[in-house]
Amino acid sequence: MAPPDSYRVAPYIDAAARLNTTIEIASYGKHSLVSEIASGLHISFDDPAAAIETIINAARRQSYSGIIAADDMAGEIAAAAAHALGLPHNPPGAVHFTRWKHKARAILKTAGIPVPGHWIVNIADAMAGRLPDIVFPCVVKPVNLSASRGVIRADNHHQLQRAIQRINTIIALLPELEARSTLLIEQYIPGREIALEGMLKNGCLIPIAIFDKPDPLEGPYFEETYYVTPSRLPIPLQDNAVQTIERACRIYGLKTGPVHAEIRFHHDIPYIIEITARTIGGDCARLLEYASGYSLESLVIQFAMGNTVDIKPFDQAAGVLMLPTPRSGVLRRVEGVLAAQKIPHINAVHIAVREGHELKSLPEGSSYLGFIFASADSPEQVESALREAHAQLNVIVDPLWRIEGNPGVT
User: Fold this and answer.
1) Which of 63, 171, 370, 380 is least surrounded by Cβ atoms within 10 Å, i.e. has the fewest?
2) What is the pLDDT of residues 105-118, one digit of tens each?
3) How many domains does one find in the chain?
4) Helix 92-99 crosses helix 235-252 at what angle (to 10 degrees)?
5) d(CA 164, CA 178)
6) 1 in Cβ contact with 257 (< 8 Å)
């Protein structure tokens, strides 16, 4: 299950073909140009009950071995449909916590898991300046958006009010009332950040990779850039992170399937920033194939089918650069791609946005300009190659001019 514009659809289709496994895509997209979406199940994520009924009816015609949610949007519906069909699944309520940041923070804090100090506020009160005693610096977040969209750091009351006004514009058109009316404000936690990719089996966390984020994420916006594995953190800190994430998953009630988590260390204490019941976002999962020879999607499919999977250590270090969007506007071209591809240890440079398309930078934007992948004998070589390749690129962005007028007036 995935929205039609998901980066994850094509990799799952490819992985299923390699495994000689038949998959069916449940998505919007009756008129999609992707044949597997157009010929698949047509559901609306805005109508969960109808979507679940569509899947149940389809299962009467052909049995399913498992249901996979490729993105956050599909998580709860996929869990509920799998429950209805008696397939392996996480409780829908557990997946719910991973989608709503304020609820996740509250339940983890109650259980004693390290999370940033936080305040849950009503957007109308926040816009009017009716706020609790906020500790600065702080980070303001929409409660259920992903990819750092709408996440803004504020160092004082003036910056906080500007951030609230800006986020209000971003969330105003979201379909769910709670998403439009609630903000999460939390203390900024300084320190090194890592990401973990893993699989849950009977509630036990099996780590696949731990990624360093070598660029400091200090704000005012929090655009993801470099992911490099294996991590160079001391092993005791890595073990502590894995144990903390596993505890948090149990508190949520997660039991099976993929997990992507983000941790920030402050004074060697692992603070949970995010845990989601899905794989890593964007096209980043490809880096695991460069390091190991097998795809993350193939692991997820085999786990969903109940097959025994042996996750082996990586043969090489690997990394990805999620190309930052330099500014909003119209993409004219990206220069230097061929030069970047020639840098030693670079596997691929993929520009995801076509020329002439609109770019939106953070905090309004949510998609990546593209990805650079590298693999080498050491994480230091990987990081160096990614930085050198990025230096070859020159992104040309023109201003976007919008023409407004009165309908019917000539």
Assistant:
1) 63
2) 999 999 999 999 99
3) 3
4) 120
5) 16
6) no
